[in-house]
Amino acid sequence: xxxxxxxxxxxxxxxxxxxxxxxxxxxxxxxxxxxxxxxxxxxxxxxxxxxxxxxxxxxxxxxxxxxxxxxxxxxxxxxxxxxxxxxxxxxxxxxxxxxxxxxxxxxxxxxxxxxxxxxxxxxxxxxxxxxxxxxxxxxxxxxxxxxxxxxxxxxxxxxxxxxxxxxxxxxxxxxxxxxxxxxxxxxxxxxxxxxxxxxxxxxxxxxxxxxxxxxxxxxxxxxxxxxxxxxxxxxxxxxxxxxxxxxxxxxxxxxxxxxxxxxxxxxxxxxxxxxxxxxxxxxxx
Length: 285
Ligand SMILES: NC(=O)c1ccc[n+]([C@@H]2O[C@H](COP(=O)([O-])OP(=O)(O)OC[C@H]3O[C@@H](n4cnc5c(N)ncnc54)[C@H](OP(=O)(O)O)[C@@H]3O)[C@@H](O)[C@H]2O)c1
Description:
Blueprint: H1 2-22, E1 27-32, H2 37-48, E2 51-57, H3 60-74, E3 78-82, H4 88-99, E4 106-109, E5 115-116, H5 124-152, E6 155-160, H6 163-166, H7 173-193, E7 198-204, H8 212-215, E8 217-218, H9 233-245, E9 250-252, H10 255-266, H11 268-278
Helix pairs in contact: 2-3, 2-9, 4-5, 5-7, 10-11
């Protein structure tokens, strides 16, 4: 009996050892906004694929805890990179310092915050905060990693936009502007970077079940909400991985997300009509 248990232990141990030895090292992935939601799920999925991780967010402790748990679970190297992308100069400096002398396989530019409310009733400071984090922060993060990718002559840059970057919705005007801006930014970069072998992709998640909506700024309370299909963050993480592996220019996540973007692009007036009558109006402030 003891002998059988011992043999079983040896088999399990050898299988684990073999699995870890056979795991290819895929290189380093930088993920911004990695401590929660989509970024966190993406970090776990890339770690499971054998990527080493460089994880950026503002909260240092949460990043450290996440890194420790992913490193021990997936046997990869994980470096926390505490930084605020809304402070573009400082974020660029930190990213460059963290990449010095290292090779980078993939950068996922994902950090973002939300802002809800009628545009004219929204504080300018809240609007600037969304522009700085989602747009300036994304451009700065890309600016910081691109010299490394260009020097290597390969790698992937993936920007996390949104289905409401494909077709904007009311009461999210500033947010939608940042997400639509990312699409234009990516279109230009894709062609600029083609001669250097760098892939530029955009992933557009539909509504995803993350702490995003609890953390976003509400210029006025959102008293009424329509129920919309919601995806798990792991589905978006898979879309990001697919975007990298297949060097896709754009991935819109989920069938409802694709349908929403399709109607918005091909039937803009119908889309206006549907949004006008379906998105609940907020109460007056
Ligand atoms: N959830 C959705 O329904 C949805 C749909 C479409 C697109 N998206 C987009 O997907 C991305 C991720 O969203 P999520 O749902 O995963 O949000 P989330 O759960 O709120 O996570 C946001 C992440 O970004 C980090 N972050 C926020 N501001 C930052 C800053 N100034 N500098 C550095 N890191 C910052 C947060 O960590 P710290 O607070 O510690 O910095 C956190 O790790 C965003 O760009 C969002 O616009 C989300």
